[in-house]
């Protein structure tokens, strides 16, 4: 027994890592694998490119017939489309925009951009609960408007940077210090113009302000500034996002903000900068209860901001049902319940849950980026139809805000 005890005494306790070390190790492994996956998906420079659009798709986006586009091509008017192996015409998005500009010489409505006194539209897409389809909504909304000729800026205000990732940027590798919106709203001398932060994307007409964990700094800095009796009275936190966005007012028709899934200083600042608010709702009872808490907290906090001089007048506020399953009875009951409560503030169109959107997401694409030939065509068509219905309804609201006829 003595020998056994001696052997036991000599055993060394296994080395254990602290939780922060385990998490840090997992993060490094996952980051390197995500980077490798991106390079595999988008070789050789790991840059995303937008697909070409068929002549039928291009005609639908512009609002003309396919035969008229063929006529323009044969007469040498507008850009010369590419020809596929089968001899079919294919257009880049840049060429589609050029065709719009060409047609707008005879009819201005082909270019839907701002004119005269039209104000910059800033749409904040928000919810308190993650998983409500907020980023999916913001991405598709941004791309929808860009496809139709609007000048769009997408702002990723979520430190998790899901929107940036969808646009091909891995935050820990591609977004450096002072390269998020934080760089334009920070309180110290390192603040820089937003125009230096904006990045062009592979989606012609759509620019991006990317995100990373640096955005958390604004949540940490603001309480210190608020507690400082010598702070600049004109530097109120809730006005900083608005000021930064308005500095690029002349470059865009609308800005879409993907807010973080929490009611912090970033979200409050975005709501104060916005001209319109879109609240995404997953029609499940727990999500509805969570949304109720979000609304109650937002009302309390925003009332304080309003009393301090914040502008909270909006062109519109709408609730959007996301990941809706038409054959789900309980979801249908919740939809009817909220429509009865909120009336026209609930969008008529709903974002239907679709495997096509999920399949596109596997390669960091939206349904607008994925080609019809890449998946089941009926599933693809239903997903695009659902997404278009939602975004077309929002486009009508935007145009109403400008006092223009709706499409």
Element pattern in H and E: HHEHHEEHEHEHHHEEHHEHEHEHHH
Distance between the termini: 90 Å
Largest sheet, described in full?
7 strands, mixed
Percent of residues in helices comes to 40-55%
The Cα radius of gyration reads: 24 Å
Q: On the 0-100 scale, what is the average pLDDT?
A: 87
Low-confidence stretches: none
**Structural class based on helices, strands and sheet pairing:** alpha/beta
| Global shape | globular
Strands side by side in the biggest sheet:
6-7-5-8-4-9-10
Strands, total number = 10
Number of helices: 16
What percentage of amino acids are in beta strands?
5-15%
Characteristics:
globular, 407 residues, 45% helix, three-stranded antiparallel sheet, seven-stranded mixed sheet, 16 helices, single chain, alpha/beta, 10% strand
């Amino acid at each position: 027994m003595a020998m056994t005890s001696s052997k036991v005494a000599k055993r060394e306790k296994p080395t254990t890592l602290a939780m922060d070390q385990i998490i840090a190790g997992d993060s490094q492994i996952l980051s390197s694998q995500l980077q490798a996956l991106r390079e595999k998906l988008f070789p050789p420079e790991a840059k995303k490119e937008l697909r070409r659009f068929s002549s039928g798709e291009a005609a639908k986006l512009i609002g003309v017939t396919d035969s008229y586009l063929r006529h323009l091509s044969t007469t040498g008017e507008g850009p010369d489309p590419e020809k596929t192996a089968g001899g079919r015409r294919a257009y880049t998005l840049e060429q589609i925009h050029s065709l719009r500009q060409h047609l707008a010489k005879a009819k201005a409505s082909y270019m839907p951009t701002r004119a005269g006194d039209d104000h910059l539209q800033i749409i904040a897409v928000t919810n308190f609960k993650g998983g409500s389809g907020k980023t999916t909504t913001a991405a598709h909304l941004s791309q929808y408007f860009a496809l139709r000729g609007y000048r769009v800026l997408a702002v990723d205000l979520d430190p998790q940077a899901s929107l940036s990732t969808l646009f091909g940027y891995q935050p820990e590798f591609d977004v450096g210090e002072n390269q998020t919106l934080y760089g334009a709203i920070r309180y110290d001398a390192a603040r820089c113009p937003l125009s230096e932060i904006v990045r062009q994307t592979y989606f012609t007409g759509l620019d991006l302000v990317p995100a990373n964990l640096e955005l958390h700094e604004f949540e940490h800095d603001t309480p210190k500034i608020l507690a400082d009796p010598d702070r600049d009275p004109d530097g109120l936190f809730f006005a900083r996002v608005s000021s930064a966005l308005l500095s690029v007012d002349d470059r865009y028709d609308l800005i879409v903000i993907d807010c973080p899934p929490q009611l912090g200083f970033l979200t409050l600042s975005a709501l104060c900068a916005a001209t319109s608010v879109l609240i995404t709702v997953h029609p499940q009872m727990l999500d509805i209860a969570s949304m109720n808490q979000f609304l109650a907290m937002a009302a309390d906090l925003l009332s304080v901001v309003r009393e301090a001089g914040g502008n909270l007048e909006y062109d519109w506020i709408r609730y959007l049902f996301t990941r809706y399953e038409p054959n789900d009875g309980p979801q249908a009951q919740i939809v009817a319940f909220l429509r009865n409560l909120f009336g026209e503030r609930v969008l008529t169109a709903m974002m239907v849950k679709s495997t096509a959107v999920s399949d596109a997401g596997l390669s960091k694409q939206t349904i607008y980026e994925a080609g019809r030939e890449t998946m089941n065509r009926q599933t693809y068509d239903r997903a695009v139809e659902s997404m278009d219905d939602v975004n077309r309804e929002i486009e009508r609201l935007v145009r109403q805000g400008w006092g223009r006829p709706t499409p």
